[in-house]
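Thread: Modeling a multi-component assembly for a lab meeting

Hi all, long-time lurker, first post. My supervisor asked me to bring a structural picture of a complex we are working on to next week's group meeting, and I have zero experience with this. I have the sequence lines for every component (647 residues in total). Could someone generate the structure of the whole assembly? Inputs are pasted exactly as I received them:
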Amino acid sequence: MSEPLLRLVDVSKRFGDVTAVDGVSLDIAAGEFLTILGASGSGKTTTLRLIAGFEPPTAGQILMNGADIAPLPPYRRDVNTVFQQYALFPHLDVRENVGYGLRMRGVPPPECESRVAEALAMVRLGDLGPRKPRQLSGGQQQRVALARALVNRPQLLLLDEPLGALDLKLRRAMQLELKHLQTRLGITFVYVTHDQEEALTMSDRIALMRSGRIEQLGKPDEIYHRPRTRYVADFIGETNLLGCKVLATAAEVVTLDLNGSVLRAPVGWGASIPAGAVALLSVRPEQLVIGPRGDVGPERNRLDGVVADVVFVGAGSKVHVALGNGTRMVVNWAGDATFAPGIPVSVTWPVEVGVLLRD
Amino acid sequence: MISSQVAARGRVLRLGALLPLAWAVVLLFVPYAFLLVQSFWRVAGGALTPDFTLDNYRRLIGTSLYPRTILYSAETALWVTGFALLLAYPLAYLLAFKARRHRELLYFAVIIPLWVSYVVRAYAWKIILGQHGILNGLLLSLGVIHEPLSVLLYSRWAVVVALTHIYTPFALMPIFAVLESIPPSLREASQDLYAGRWRTFLHVTLPLSLPGVLAGATFAFVLSMGDFLAPQLLGGNDSALMVSNLVWSLFGVAYNWPLGAAVAVVMLGLTLALLALTGAIERRGQTR
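Re: Modeling a multi-component assembly
Sure thing. I ran the full set together rather than chain by chain. Output:
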């Protein structure tokens, strides 16, 4: 990676006794779509506000193109923000809202006008220029907020849960539209959300935050398929977590014991786990196969149980299987066979899809 | 059983709503109506005589004293309004945006003079501005003047100063309320869009706070225009008297209740017209 556009170096923010952001370091490349994902209170919005300049960091550096921008006020940063509730100026019409930044920068009126028209066309609001924000729907307001930021052609666009107030269908459509816009314009996006689906759909990389720290940073499929901790595995998607005892660690495979059943998993992060220790094995419901009891080859793990519940979810079913010791596993099942509660079954999965987690 | 309880509660609620209404009718509308009626009466042989005559209004318009005093009062009220806004706006701004921890305390400090008797506050200015007052004493001891100034007290400016002091909290409260209701994200958005603090104030905060300014100005203007104690105590000579003092003397000394009522009705009409105007401006600002 060449020189990153934005670099956070050990950035912390404390409000009194509360540490909102705790030693975050992060490099963001030019043109990247980076999502900061986290539950409320994880420090994701504060991180964004530090980059925008609304809060000064308590410690650390914020470098943009190599220069520390931490001491600069927001109006001196080449960064624009799309706010959570849009923060459109209620006394200005759509055109005046979108042109605000250009006017403040002293862009001559004719150029200002044409760029505003261009920005409005880009978000497909060309004919709504003379309206006041309160005369627009939520989705339209969202587009105005986007146009108001993008019209300034910032190097970096910050988006704070921009789709949070929209209904599901509109949100899905806007996700794609935003992603296309970002790719087309080549502007770097830092996108804050608590919605893991949104993060997986749109991002080049995801930084999952927890208690002011980055719990894991990676591409969406890495985060999904190779979570490092129980928190990540639990937060992103659905998963089955099995508490096992480590029997032996070989070069590539760890052998585990789950109440007498022997399971195997790729070493991954478990390389340093000593024999006898307890480890968590995570397997996604869609990676599991359910079938009648019977032996499987050495490349698959197998656990026996009894069907406890079958929940229809539209495109298939979720089959809950009760294992002998009281644990349950959830299996996504889209096959033809139907399962009724009480039927003895085997749940199997390929050894390589299991993930060992730190608790 | 339950439905009868609900019905009983409904009756209690309706009674609760009716009481303030009855209060307003008996103590406001009836006297105002009576005032209006009486402004068409006349005084005959030292007695109030019911009549329907426009003489009072004719005299009101025809005698230069009355229009002149009304204009004078309006002018004084304008000065008071201007000074009150100049004091109230920065103070409200500081309270709303700068005073983080001590906000309640400071707001309280602004409001607390309202709990002190009006007469006490007016007299306080007498003590400050009088011949042997604090201000003269200060100026004398500083050597700025050698004789106590008599122009400080008993002048229009004494009245303006006292009224400004008294009505500034009334101007401050609506301005503070509006400033406080501006979402912080709007000012942040403005800064995010390259506007510094001053331009953010000019382009976002100030225009959004205008309804509060209008309400505050209306309060200060209407209240000071109708004031009569401050001119009575601090205005001194007749030339500094305001329209309410005229009404008072017409009802009292002159025993010309019908003419007094006519002046009061004109003042009431002017005030209502002003309120309707500011109300219309505010509504236009909302729908625009």
